Amino acid sequence: MIQVGLSEIKYAESPEKLRTMGLGSCVGVIIYSEAGKCAAMAHVMLPDSSLARAGVLQPGKYADTAVPELVRLMTDIHGFSIRALKAKMAGGAEMFRSSRVLPMGSIGLRNTEAVRVQLQHYRIPLIAEETGEDYGRTVEFNPETGLLMIRTIFSGERKI
Amino acid sequence: MHRLSDLQSIHLDLLKEAGNIGAGHAATALSTLLQKRIEMNIPSLKVVPLPEVLDRDAEKHVATSYIEVSGGFRGCFFMMFEVNLANKLIRQLVPDGSVFDNDMGKSAFCEISNILCGSYLSAISSFFHTQLNQSPPNYAVDMEGAILGEGLVELSLYDDSILLIEAELFDQDEKNRFTGEFLFIPLPESLDLLFSMAEGKSSM
Fold it and tell me: What CDD domains is this protein classified in (chain B) (predicted)?
């Protein structure tokens, strides 16, 4: 099992799997090749790299840098055709329900929207997603089957 | 503005001492509330790269109160309790209350976190001779990782690491199991205060 930490990007080939734990407002986005049984996953924290207040950029941290990096990893580095790539995502919840006015609005919603915009830009079809709501998710992607397993505390497990 | 990479051992020692005093006060307040002894480890202070933050047990089921701190230091304060202990705490104030009761249970938990965070911060503010304010608590019950991840969003704009001042609490009856923790995570821009204090000290 390959662990993807906050703001990281990792690549795996079957039979390896990719896992990221405890997604709240963060989004786990996976770009994969079904035929090649390979995948790359990012743990995105924020929608836009223009929000950054300091240098040293981890591309996985922002949606607008994570998706291009995932695409580069799958195409330039591992040689898949961009037309063969598909995507799935999960996360983007809002953990704090209290009437808190976040300085940035609902960050979960903005994260999922930003990922969607990036995927459309590269014309990568979003095959499945489970986003929003107010609970945490742990996700595991199996490149062998192309299925994304989602685990939660209050509503069990499912595969998308 | 100072960055986390500028921190030297004198700064870390100051912060660690502050964290120690703050967490000690809060643990005492908690013991008083529960009328039982709560053990606390010596707080640790670490600069943690973001990818490693959730290496901890990210799926641990916790009740959390998240408070924003402003004034001489800016940052955030998390009070996390394992759900069983959180329920015990709540029942000190509301018999039959629980973390899942969004009305009384939640207000009781938030009130407790107000008191504990208040005693933590007032100890830190007198240590650094600075004024600190706390926001009303934000409440969530779920996976620790998911809650922390959302709380760290603003901090992650400044750096690829966070400065984590962490004190773990143990309930003697629960035998060495995690029961709760206080996390204080100052924003890097708050470090200026720390640097001026360290300079004041070293010139003495």
Answer: CheC_ClassI (cd17909)
